[in-house]
Specification:
38% helix; disordered C terminus; 636 residues; hypothetical protein tt1634; alpha/beta; six-stranded mixed sheet; elongated; Histidine-containing Protein, Chain: A
């Protein structure tokens, strides 16, 4: 074969190979374009415009950031519906999930005779160990059950204050359930008496930090009233209860309705309790009150089932007999009536009397008539035991013509007088008169029950006792805001000063601190910050240290005066919070001061604060103090 033929054949094969290669490239490009366009169109139609499509030969690569994992999978499925799924390369990513919302932090503390348990969810920033240590201290030897879980989220605003208050409250509540949420505490508890319930409610409301919502549901068992007592007096001055007892709400309503028919104009109170002598108590009481109203004036007294109806002197005898006869026939069984129409007494006649007076300072004077030396000794000893050995002055004399029940009447009168803050008891042959003031809202009931028991059904007594809120050791306590304002008034009149350039309180200011200490002793458990401020003279660091030392010095002076300062803190603000210009001496003098401020919750979550700090009362008051209430210092 000739060489030219070989070249021709080779050239032909070469040309065919080139043409085949060109055709293959064109086919691949066509497939790439078709696949890419088809997949992109399908994704766009389904709203997946975020997806990027790139074809490389037979492979189709999907890229981009899918909103969710489900949408990413949907994009793969869509592409697999256009081209063979084996040709689809997944190079997509999923958008990072949004941060999970913080859980609802809450805790529930249960305490009873079996121990204390705590359950709930707390933020990890709350010192779990400190909380348990506090609970164990409250429980004493009783077991503690810890069912608390924690979550690593910031503590919400108000959480630390709520938890600290809840633990403080649990110390005073041996049987209670306390529920804690951020900014809110709910307390369900049981007390032994109505008085304890009232006292606890007052203490807890006062101890609650400002801004914290406190829901109290404190129950007290119905007291046992012995004897079951009621006394209503109707006179020219009006109609009033000296004591009122009822066994049910319905009975109380029935009794109050009868009293209003008899002329009761005030609100009136009637204690609900156990110990009623008969289920027909309210029926009998209403009948007796209606009888008293028919007589026009006098008193009706119930001591269990014994009923004493005393008409006013001068009441018509026929009317008295008729009303008493009808009442005797109407009273339910069990109840026994004693009715008395006093004789008219000559106003010029001076009956024998025994009088004991109690002054607001607690001094007691005994004067008047006693029957014998033995009674005088007993009366003097009884008074000294009740009012204090050094507080009794005896000036009684002995006579022979006194009634046989005189000793009982005298001693009962003294015992009734001990229920008052100040007043007098007057014992005469016809009555025992108790008058005065008290800070105990139950004093009239207690006195009426006492005299009804001691004197018996045949004796008459008169109770003229006023309740005064200022004498009530609970109701008279000032609120935290009132305490803050009263201290501000003291400092506004006589500022606390220091020796020049020193943290030592000047001798002239010690009287001011004495006055502040007396106020704080009446204020109870309040959270207070003692703030020190200076003017701008000198270095800033020196002023900061001086203000801190002066605030601490005032706190130490209060401790020296036996003021309970566990919930107080001292903090120096240096020159950072002026209330006047530092350009003039008058302004600098105003800026050198001490302020007493209530510690109030911050509107936002404190950073780095622990439950232990909150419980100890060491939390901050805020970035800036509130308006000035007092000032101290002479100069930096």
């Amino acid at each position: 074969m000739r060489l030219s033929s070989v070249f021709a054949i080779a050239a032909t094969f070469t040309a065919a190979a080139v043409l085949a290669l060109v055709a293959a490239n064109l086919s691949v490009k066509l497939i790439e374009e078709t696949s890419e366009i088809g997949v992109r169109t399908a994704l766009d139609e389904r709203g997946m415009t975020w997806a990027e499509v790139e074809a490389d030969g037979l492979q189709v690569t999907l890229a981009g950031i899918a909103p969710t994992e489900a949408i990413r999978f949907s994009a793969l499925s869509t592409a697999g519906g256009i081209v063979d799924a084996a040709r689809v390369i997944d190079d997509m990513q999923v958008e990072a999930a949004a941060a999970l919302a913080a859980p609802r932090f809450s805790a529930e503390v249960l305490r009873n005779d079996a121990g204390i348990s705590i359950i709930g969810l707390m933020p990890t920033s709350t010192d779990h160990d400190d909380v348990l240590d506090r609970i164990r201290a409250i429980a004493g030897t009783a077991p503690v059950t810890d069912l608390i879980e924690t979550a690593d989220y910031p503590a919400p605003a108000g959480w630390e204050d709520a938890l600290g208050f809840a633990l403080n409250a649990m110390e005073r509540l041996p049987r209670a359930k306390v529920s804690v949420e951020a900014g809110r505490v709910s307390i369900n508890a049981i007390t032994d008496s109505g008085d304890e319930k009232t006292q606890l409610e007052a203490q807890l409301n006062r101890a609650a930090p400002p801004g914290l919502q406190v829901a109290l549901d404190i129950a007290a068992p119905r007291p046992v009233i012995t004897p079951f007592t009621l006394r209503l007096v109707k006179s020219e001055d009006g109609t009033q209860f000296d004591a009122c007892s009822a066994d049910t709400e319905h009975a109380r309503t029935q009794i109050m309705s009868a009293a209003m028919r008899a002329g009761l104009t005030g609100p009136g109170t009637c204690q609900i309790g156990m110990g009623v002598p008969s289920p027909n108590w309210s029926v009998a009481v209403a009948q007796a009150i209606d009888a008293l109203a028919a007589l026009g004036a006098g008193s009706v007294t119930f001591s269990d089932a014994d009923v004493t109806l005393v008409a006013a002197a001068g009441t018509d005898q026929d009317a008295f007999d008729r009303v008493v006869g009808e009442l005797e026939n109407d009273l339910p069984e069990v109840f026994a009536l004693y009715a008395k129409l006093p004789e008219t007494v000559d106003p010029n006649q001076g009956p024998p009397e025994f009088v004991a007076t109690l002054s607001p300072e607690g001094l007691v004077q005994l004067r008047g008539r006693l029957s014998d030396e033995n009674l005088r000794s007993v009366t003097d000893s009884f008074a000294r035991a009740a009012f204090g050995s050094d507080n009794v002055y005896t000036a009684t004399r002995l006579v022979d013509d006194l009634p046989g029940d005189w000793p009982v009447r005298v001693l009962a009168g003294l015992e009734a007088l001990s229920e008052l803050s100040n007043g007098a008891v007057t014992v005469s042959p016809t009555t025992v008169l108790i008058s005065g003031s008290t800070g105990n809202p139950q004093a009239c009931t207690n006195i009426a029950s006492l005299l009804a028991t001691k004197l018996g059904e045949a004796e008459e007594f008169d109770i003229r006792v006023r309740y005064e809120e200022k004498l009530d050791p609970i109701a008279a306590l000032p609120t935290p805001d009132e305490c803050e304002a009263e201290i501000a008034e003291i400092i506004g009149t006589s500022k606390i000063t220091f020796e020049p350039g020193s943290a030592t309180v000047d001798a002239s200011a010690l009287g001011t601190i004495d006055d502040i200490a007396e106020v704080l002793k009446q204020c109870g458990d309040i959270r207070l910050e003692i703030q020190g401020h200076t003017d701008s003279q000198g270095r800033e660091e020196m002023n900061q240290n001086l203000s801190q030392a002066r605030a601490q010095s005032v706190l130490n002076e209060l401790r020296a005066r036996r003021v309970l300062t566990a919930s107080f803190s001292a903090k120096g603000y240096g020159e950072s919070n002026p209330i006047a210009s530092n350009e003039e001496e008058e302004g600098r003098e105003a800026n050198r001061r001490i302020e007493f401020k209530l510690i109030r919750p911050k509107p936002t979550t404190p950073e780095g604060e622990t439950t232990l700090e909150t419980i100890a009362g060491s939390s901050d008051t805020g970035d800036t103090p509130s308006e000035t209430e007092g000032s101290t210092d002479e100069q930096n």
